[in-house]
């Protein structure tokens, strides 16, 4: 029998409902969403964001999207989903790698978890001078 959790009020089922947890379907939905975000992204913003990611990657410190804005390297995208497409592309091209999840620095998201990234060369100790 499903129940509501006392702290969050979310409905929980005592057993896994087959078909509700499907990693392959989740990955496919992610790819579709990323493609939509990419198609809706202004080319000049994408180029500026890519350059900002490369700049931060070369510094050798973990960073998140909020750092690109704080450093004045790029403006906000038209939609927040456009960040993921750019960071995903940089990761696929070997510029950055996932460096864990940390609280977001953005006040608007109330410190929700977000990915932080580090430059691949920096992670290997090859920091640009």
From TrEMBL:
The name this protein carries in UniProt is Uncharacterized protein
